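pasting for ref
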Amino acid sequence: MTIPDDKVSASLRECIDRAFRIPIFFSTASTLNDLQRQFQNRLIAEIENALLFPRTLPESEQYPETVLTNIRRLVISSYGMLAVNFRRFYIQVLDTNVGPPTSSTPTWQGSVFLQIEPSMAFQFGLPILLVREKDTDVNVGVWQGGISPLNTFIEWDSDNQSVEEFFETVQWREVFANWVAEVRAYYYARTEPQFSTIG
């Protein structure tokens, strides 16, 4: 059975398009509302336009091992991480095991994996860009302020800012450009030989 030349060309073109993109770990929630999905799609377009290749679990990658092993494999085979923390659960703390709750105001929480995956990427030394939907995990883990060096992230105010407005801001363009440069530098550093010639 022979494959038509146009199909071979299309398949080859798809491989070539991927070959020149640097793989990054794209950490995100799996359950999204329509507005969040629109934001995610626009973010993926930004990543691909920067000639990076977003990989995520379990959509683009899945290995036959435990969840943490899968995350570790993806971290080790990536050259950067972009994590986006969307609102998932609106919760209120009613009681604690010791003393009264610090606050009874309801807050938004994201996915638990958006605590684990950036932490593992940081441990491995990947350049990390954190993006969150405003008011998500404000006082929780890597997403709370003051956790150096993970205290630099950018917020999308989904209640007052359209998807396009966010991606047109100077803040987004500057932070994203700096992160892309870090990813490229990290890629070149990791793919250089471990020895140097003596001249």
